[in-house]
Every structure is written in structure tokens, then in C-alpha cells.
Write the C-alpha cells for this entry.
Amino acid sequence: MHDPHLLLRDGAEAELARRGHVLDRAALSGLTERRARLIAERDKLRAEQNRSARSGIRPDEAERARIQQAKDRLRLVTEEHREVEEGLSTLLSAVPNLPYPQVPDGTEHDPPVVRRTWGEAPGFDFTPRDHLDIGTGLGIVDQVRAAKLSGSRFAVTRGAGARLERALGAFLLDLHTTEHGYTEYGVPHLVNRESMTGTGQLPKFEDDLFLTTAADRDLFLIPTAEVPLVNLYRGETLQEAHLPLAMTAFTSCYRAEAGSYGRDTRGLVRLHQFEKVELVRICHPDRSREELELLVGHAESALRRLGLAHRVVELRAGDLGFAARRTYDIEVWLPGQGTFREISSCSDCGDFQGRRAGIRVRDRDGRKAFAATLNGSALPVGRTLVAILEQYQCADGSVTVPPALVAYTGFSSIAPDGTPQFSSP
């Protein structure tokens, strides 16, 4: 959790206020002071007990009464200390990360802070359609039948659509493992409460998670591979010489999206289940700023290889995710909607998750610090498919496959009737 002394320093309240969080300073200060007093009294009582035990002198009746009184007091102090620790943990677990001072003020309702743009939005001599109309027309996307299986906000892909999804996963993993130095992992899709707490999903966002209960265990479906990848090293101390760790995984992701009803309900943009290639980096806290720029570049390179026009925006303080202290969103152009939409979010969490998960770094001089963690989508398969369908659509209803994917799909386009058009050998 947060170091309460850092939150009580001058300026922390103002930093949290920039992201819309009101710090209960009085409660935090009171709990912190009570904890310090109780720890001091507990340690004093324990030291006195140890001295009495080592003295070898048989106590008289008055001394035995005093020793028993001290034991009773130690028991009460220990219990009170436990209760104070629980209260402090509850308070601190609800406090988000502090933003970088350089993060711009504002919320999601303010104009975007665009850092760079890549590629030209494709021009059409016809009115471009959105991805759901294109995919349904081709017979490669079916949300109606998906609803029979699971209800709203699920999708079925078929034929060339399913093959495109599989190709995207393989392409992205190959790119990041062979060119960007990431190690691929296969990880569980069900994780425990400790894992969700370590990366910041719990306790604040439990309503956004899918929970399963079996054999007297609570296990959560992962909202992103960030959760298992970061928690692989929960409770461990890493050697600085072995950092950074660069990890990637291709998993399904599951999100209840409890707070987003009415938003993005059409098509494949916001589903309860979707596939994604995630990137996670763990480094020394002094290196996290440079690592964020590197991570964004890796995610952005995937879009450039696919020839998808996009831009990079920096989130304002009031729009940051709970665990992030700085975030760049990569937004892809969707001509069917006539707007940019988020396709990747890359965040520097500083030592926020390292503290919660107990991940430490030992430097070359033997000093320890909490590790910094970074994560980014690179990329979500569904939203990338959305962008391909919209940016590569043709007037006759067909869709061209990005050249970088042809080696993975085996076809270079999808005909208007949904059949793959195979490339020449």
C-alpha cells in the first residue's frame, strides 16, 4: 500500500485532488499516529518480558503480578495494533496513485492532449461503413447468435473473421518476442484475491470483475494479463542486474463493465470477453519514465506494421486509471465512426503495484526499493480487427488484409461473400 508518511507530506493532497480524490487526512494522520504509539508500547512490553525471562531470578508474588499485568497489556496492545493496521490498510487501499507533476490537469471531458499522429486517415470515394455493418455483411461477425449463448456484449467470429483474429494474436506475439525482447508466458485466467489486490483491481473495482466460487475458493477471471504477469513476482526481491523484466501474454480478458452501461454497446469495441496481447515491464523505480516511452513505442509499432492511422494522446490527471501515475493512450482512426478511438493504454504505475504486491529490487550496493511496473495493450485483437475492417474496407463490401498479416492468414482479402481470397504462392 501507500506509505502513509508520503501521503501526509505537503502537496500530496493537492496531487490527489488533481485526479478527483479527496484524501481523509485527519483519519490517515490519526491512524498513523496511533500505530506508532502502539508499536512503541508493544516493543517496550516485549523487551521487558525478555529481560525478565533472561534474568534467571525467581520472581516474588508482586513481581509475578506485575509480569501478568504486562502480559495482559501486551495482548490488548497487540489486538489494538492489528485493528489499527486493518483500518489503515482499508483507507490506503482506496487511495489511487499520485500523478506525475508533468501530467496535464483536467478530465476526460477536456480536449485531448495529442502528443503525435501517425499515418493518414484513408480516403474513400464512398460513404464508409462501421465495422459491425461490414462484419455482419461479410458473415464473419455474429452478435445475434452470441447473445443466444451469453447475452449482450459478446461476439462470435466466423470463417475469415476467426482466422483474422488468430492471425493477429500470432503476429503480435511474434513482433514483441522477436523484435522487442519480451518473453512469452502462458498464464492462468483465474486468479485469487491477493493477485487482484496486488495490481489494484481490488478492493475498489470488484463490481467490474467476474467472480467464480468453487471448492470454497474465490477466483476472479482476469480483466487483463497484467494481473497474472505482475503477480508472478509477488513477494519476491529482484536483482537490479536482471532488470528490466519484459513479459507478454495472449489471453482472453473478462470485464463486467459495471460502470459503462450505455457506452459503446454497438459492435466489438466494448465486450465482456475479448482477446488481447499484453505487455508488462518491471524495472528499478528510477527507470520507469524511460521504460514508459519504450513501452508506448512497442505498442505503436504494431499499428504501424499494420498500416493503421493513429495518434498518441496523454491522459489528463482526472482521467488516469487507479494504479497509473502517467498514461498514454493510442487511439486508432475509425472512418465508419469518423473519430479516433482508444486501442491501447500504456501506463507507468511507478512503485504503486510494487508496494501492494511486495515486489522489491536490490541494487548493486545491496539497497532495496519497491519495483516499478508498467503495462500496455499491444494490442487488443477485437479492436484491432475493428480498425482493419474500417480502414481497409472497399466499395464492393470486400476488405483488404494488411500486408503484414498475409503470411499469417494465407489470404490477402475477404470477398463480399465472406470467402478468403488466397494469395498466390
Remarks:
- The mean pLDDT is 95.
- The CA atoms of residues 333 and 340 lie 4 Å apart.
- The chain is about 40% helix and 20% strand.
- The two ends are 57 Å apart (CA to CA).
